[in-house]
Amino acid sequence: MTSTDLLSILPITVLVAWACVLLLVDVFTKKNKWLTPLLAAVGLCAALGISIAQSGNIYAGFKGMVVVDGFTAYLNILFAASGLAGIALAFDYNKRMGLDRGEYYVLLLFSISGMMLMAAATDLIVVFLALELLSIPLYVLAGFARPNPDSEEAALKYFLLGAFAGGFVVYGVALAFGATGSTSLGAILAAVNTGSADLTLLVIGAGLIIVGFGFKVAVVPFQMWTPDVYHGAPSAVTAFMAVGAKAAGFAALLRVFVAALPTLYQEIVPIMWVLAALTMIVGNIVAIAQSNIKRLLAYSSIAHAGYIFMSLVTFGQAEVAPDGVAAALFYLLAYAVTNFGAWGVVIALEKAEGKGLELDDYAGLGRKYPALAAAMAVFMLSFTGVPPTLGFVGKFFLFRTVLEAGFVGLALIGVLTSLISAYYYLRVLVVMYMRDGQPDVSRPVLLRLTTGLTAVGTVVLSIVSVPLFRWASQAVLRLF
Amino acid sequence: MNPVLHPLTLVTFFPLLGVLVLLFMQSERKNALRWTALITSLITFGISMWLLAGFNAQNPDLQMVIDLPWIQVAGWNISYHMGVDGLSILLVLLTTFLTPISILSTWTAIEERVKDFMLFFLLLEVGMTGVFLAQDLFLFYIFWEFTLVPMYFLIGIWGGPQRMYAAIKFFLYTMAGSLLMLLAILWLGIYQGTFSVPELIAKGGIPADIQLWLFLAFAAAFAIKVPMWPLHSWLPDAHVEAPTAGSVILAGVLLKMGTYGFVRFNIPLFPEAAVKAAPWMALLAVIGIIYGAAVSYAQKDIKKLVAYSSVSHLGFVMLGLFALNPQGIQGGILQMVNHGLSTGALFLLVGMIYEQTHTRDFDVYGGLWKLTPIYGTLMLIVALSSMGLPGLNGFVGEFTILLGAFGSESIGSPWYAGLATIGVILAAVYMLYMFQKMFLGPEGSVVEEVKKHGHSIKDLNWREIVTLVPILVLIFWIGLYPKPFFALMAPTVDKLVAAVQAAAVAMH
């Protein structure tokens, strides 16, 4: 192993090793329950620091099976920050719900290491490895509230469908290998370009990979598990899962299709188009009927997967694709910030045994807890895409690349479904501000910090967005 | 010049300072909150006067331009670009003028959540002023969409019994149009390489068929906002449910954002399409004029009557704008101001009596003239102004519009203007009908009703008179001596018309 090999997996190694240490620490600290989460946060900060230090450089390790480039660094920073937000949200929530077990944080770290591996993977085998590494801890986390039957059901459902999706990915990888003789993204591209690949087989393989990751990022028609899992899993897990697993899934999709399959653009792009359109339409329409906030946010996350999926229709257009990937990265960040904030508010209102999760429980929040309600209003408006919020800027960027790639119809579906989404996001505002009620919230310091920072960030970063734009568009430079 | 102290930045964002102060005040100290908001809006009005003092009416171009790069990465070309010219100066003044008046009108009407109310009101002012000053489409869109949020809350929290329905309807209708405009804005940004409005106008050269689509996408946003028939159905709901101050701003300023959008963006950006669409826009405008007037006559709710009369009056504005000649457009812009003043005053007056009687059904009124002579006199003046009596503001605007529409080449037929005059007559009918029902005849049942509660209907108090007098002064001023108002916009309008005519000639 060379030093470049080590550098290419440095943040991952740090997290995995640290997670193993924490397993031991947790055994010996039965009294000081705060130690494990604190140390987990320290580990994430280390990984975050390494990723920040690594951005701008390229480290290709293990004979080109993993690479740390701008794309990886961007996503690694997003994953590490998401982990920190996840810990901040979970810390008091777990105590309150009686889930205060140290392995929670260990599993979180393992899952993040898988996500980071996914962002770095340039070989389909590594993609699959990363998929399993990130998923298995999440299955456990989804069932963390056992013996709560909802949580157990969520875990089982997530595990079964996840395993199923994994199967699709493996089969797709196998077909791709059969068609081109390699699992390396670069070699697949070369095989297609030299004409030595069996294109039919490869297209089928690519289709199976889309299906597998379609499950992971929850695009229609592979979204069925999402509402139940998001609803049944502990809220702090859902918050993290909605961002982390989605971002990792998109990381794989973006890199695989951009790096290995641009030549097959014409064959594959209709699939992307249809999936994006379906996801936006179904996700947004079904969300209208929800009265439980967790289910509402679950469908909202499906809808947002559809918006991000739109960026994939650009993957083979040399002119537009860099902007398309950058738009997806930017949107993931915007979504992450908004999402953690919104789930923070959900957690503040949630009570034991799944109480406090109906929309009606939010009545009167605007009067009794104006700051919390204002934050939630900002998140809802950001999800809708109303300026001045990050969600608006993200959509602006996305729609621009879709139009630039010539898909006026898809962009039209995108804006019309945004209009539909306004209806259910506004309902949250209606309940909070226009109905009377006596909501009861618990707002420990960490939660206040998370919701406050994300709310301010959602607004301020939309106005001072240049650094983010620059970061996202430089992150994709080496991908092409 | 320091961008923060630039007059346009100041006039737009000064209310934010008030918002900041309000945030740190206690919500129990209602009067302090009211004074803070009022003083903030008065200072903003002062800044707009300073703007007017520095405005050169002879200059047809944008003035006091501030143009700073904002988002210039990844092929984006977005600037913080603001400027004022003859098309926008009057509307900026109207905004800063009506805001303190509206705040003053809430002094006793809003007792619940005063702090939130004032916060949203000042935020709304930021959005509205920004809409009239932004010269970059991205920046414009941000202001445009942002105005929805505070208005949504104003209707939804302080509105009538159906407020939630009205608030959501208002939001969704407006957003539907805006999103289509967003796509058109993106198209311009991609294929013309800039979001700057003056640059886009100078560049031109958009193929005719695409121009038509873009025109329609922008028109969707603006026509809903105006609202043009048949997209008006959100307006009566929003007006009836909104609190008085919300109605004043909605009628006075928010609707003008739609008509302003046509004259600022649709006509100069897509001149060929505008010329082509002119007869159709005129047709919709005329239908709106007559339909609005006819439906107004059928109303029993005073607020609803005023709301539908807005559909009619804004039809006049649209007819004037799409005459595409100097009289038409000048009349249209002046009529925007007139409608803001007259309808704003009408809503204020309705709100003042509603505070005492809690009903807006004018069948139960009657004989108010004897009880409240000052109120009656003011209502009469405003009603006459709204129906276009010579000597008052409405006449000047409508007459100029009709003059423009009669002679308009783009509309192509004097019939539209001829039919529009029916609207003027109908306006007299429904306004006088309402006045008669409320003020003349025997005392209505509502007088008894109020007495039963141990009160009697009181005439206007000093605060209410102070609220109305500035509007009345302008109603007479514009009616008797409109020249300075036309002088502010004439050069800009002439330049715009010349550009459109050149495009029309090139088309043939």
Report on the structure:
The complex is a heterodimer of chains A (480) and B (508). Chain A is built from 20 helices and 2 strands. Chain A has 480 residues and is mainly α. The mean pLDDT of chain A is 91. In chain A, strands 1-2 form a two-stranded antiparallel ribbon. Helices cover 76% and strands 1% of the residues of chain A. In chain A, a hairpin with a 4-residue loop joins strand 1 and strand 2. In chain A, helix 11 runs antiparallel to helix 14, helix 12 packs parallel to helix 18 and helix 14 runs antiparallel to helix 17. Chain A has one domain. Chain B is mostly helical. In chain B, helix 13 packs antiparallel against helix 18. The radius of gyration of chain B is 22 Å and the shape is globular. Chain B is 74% helix and 3% strand. In chain B, a hairpin with a 6-residue loop joins strand 1 and strand 2. Chain B has a two-stranded antiparallel sheet with strand order 1-2. Chain B has a domain of 234 residues. Chains A and B meet through helix 17, helix 18 and helix 20 of A and helix 5, helix 6 and helix 7 of B.
> Rg of chain A, please?
21 Å
What ranges of chain A have pLDDT less than 50 throughout 5 or more consecutive residues? Answer: none
* Tally of helical runs of chain A: 20
Distance between the termini of chain A: 27 Å
Rg of chain B is: 22 Å
Measured as a percent range, the helix fraction of chain A is over 70%
TL;DR of this structure?
The complex is a heterodimer of chains A (480) and B (508). Chain A is mainly alpha-helical and 480 residues long.
How are the SSEs placed, and which strands pair?
The complex is a heterodimer of chains A (480) and B (508).
Chain A: H1 3-8, H2 10-28, H3 35-54, E1 59-61, E2 66-68, H4 70-96, H5 103-120, H6 124-142, H7 149-180, H8 185-194, H9 199-217, H10 225-232, H11 235-260, H12 265-288, H13 293-310, H14 321-349, H15 365-368, H16 370-384, H17 390-404, H18 408-434, H19 445-463, H20 466-475
Antiparallel strand pairs in A: 1-2
Chain B: H1 7-23, H2 30-53, E1 63-71, E2 78-84, H3 89-105, H4 114-133, H5 137-146, H6 148-158, H7 163-192, H8 197-203, H9 208-225, H10 234-241, H11 244-269, H12 271-297, H13 302-321, H14 326-357, H15 368-371, H16 373-387, H17 393-406, H18 415-439, H19 445-452, H20 462-480, H21 483-507
Antiparallel strand pairs in B: 1-2
